[in-house]
Each structure stands twice: as structure tokens, then as C-alpha cells.
UniProtKB/TrEMBL annotation:
The chain crosses the membrane at residues 61-80, 87-108, 142-161. InterPro entries: YdjM-like. The keyword Disulfide bond does not apply. Pfam families: YdjM. This is Metal-dependent hydrolase. The keyword Lipid metabolism does not apply. Keywords: Hydrolase, Membrane, Transmembrane, Transmembrane helix. Signal peptide: none annotated. GO terms for molecular function: hydrolase activity. It comes from Natronorubrum aibiense. The lineage of its organism: Archaea, Methanobacteriati, Methanobacteriota, Stenosarchaea group, Halobacteria.
Length: 184
């Protein structure tokens, strides 16, 4: 799945969680932490596999449940210690939704595998001819139903995000205002 799909699915999952627990939409800072969590696995694994060649593929270390479950648990515990438990929950929902959505094509029987969830206990297939390019990944994805579904998820998430009054946008605006103040 592409970054927009991961953010969309994470936002939808987190919205359900905040509605169930607080009967409220996501708050500003947790929404930003959620976005980071939704991209975390790729931000770790892709550079380590594609550019530094220390991992066998772009779905190993940070896509493994052996890493993510202890990591997200530790983040929730640490965030709770600083009275920011919701940040830990938001990160965890983003990170875990990322890897679960990544296995969806395997459930549909598309050439994908879910072995990365249990790496390194179960080995993954290494790249045959080096890491893929972004263009090659895009071309490979174009006709796949799971690729097209990302845009549906993104559209629904965008409608909800707007309805929730754009959680996460206010801290970005405030930070931008400090960096680039409005001329008086």
C-alpha cells in the first residue's frame, strides 16, 4: 500500500477508536502522531533495505510483529508515564494498521506473502535484482484492486477529516506561523 492509503486506513481505525472510547473525533496532536505511526514501518525498512542494504527487503524489521508489538507496547507505557497515553495509542494504531493492511493482497491471493509479519523467524524472499524503483512499484500496482481501494479509503478518510474539523492541522499552522509570521 502507498503512503496515502496507510494514512487513510489508520485515520479510519483511529476515528473508530476515539468514537468508541470518547465519543469524539481525533484530537490534534494524536492525529499527527497517528500519521507518523502509519508511515513508521516504511520509514525504517525502505531506507535500510533499498539504500543501505542491511535488510533483505523493504518489509522486514519494522514490519515484523516481533518488533512492532513490543515497540508499540513500550511506546504506550512510555507515553502513559508522561500522561500522554493517547499519543502512544495513536502511534500504535497507525503502526499496526500499516502492517495489517500490507498483508491484505496476500489474503486475496495476489503474489504477495505475509511472511514479513514473522521475520526473522520466517525468512522473507530477498530482492532478485536489487530493490524496486518507485516507478516500477507504481506500474506494478496500477491494475490491482487493492491499489484502487486506497483511493476509496482516502476519500472516505478525507471526508471524515473535514467533518472532524481537520485534526492535526492546527499545530502545523501554529508552527508555520512561528517560522513564517504574517506581516503586519
Amino acid at each position: 500500500m502507498w503512503p496515502i492509503g496507510h494514512v487513510a486506513v489508520a485515520y479510519l481505525c483511529y476515528t473508530v477508536a476515539t468514537r468508541a472510547r470518547f465519543d469524539a473525533p481525533p484530537a490534534h496532536v494524536p492525529a499527527l502522531v497517528l500519521v507518523l505511526g502509519s508511515q513508521f514501518s516504511d520509514l525504517v525498512d525502505k531506507p535500510l533495505a533499498w539504500y543501505l542494504a542491511v535488510l533483505p527487503t523493504g518489509r522486514t524489521l519494522a514490519h515484523s510483529l516481533f518488533v512492532l508489538i513490543p515497540l508499540t507496547t513500550a511506546i504506550i507505557v512510555l507515553a502513559s508515564r508522561y500522561d500522554r497515553r493517547e499519543y502512544g495509542i495513536a502511534f500504535s494504531i497507525g503502526a499496526l494498521s500499516h502492517v495489517l493492511v500490507d498483508v491484505t493482497p496476500a489474503l486475496w491471493g495476489v503474489r504477495e506473502s505475509a511472511t514479513h509479519l514473522l521475520w526473522p523467524a520466517i525468512p522473507v524472499e530477498e530482492y532478485e535484482q536489487g530493490p524496486p524503483t518507485i516507478l516500477a512499484l507504481l506500474q506494478d500496482s496500477l491494475g490491482q484492486p487493492f491499489f484502487l481501494s486506497e483511493f476509496v479509503f482516502a476519500a472516505v478518510a478525507l471526508v471524515l477529516w473535514r467533518r472532524h474539523d481537520y485534526p492535526g492541522l492546527e499545530p502545523i499552522r501554529a508552527a508555520a506561523g512561528r517560522v513564517w509570521p504574517t506581516p503586519s
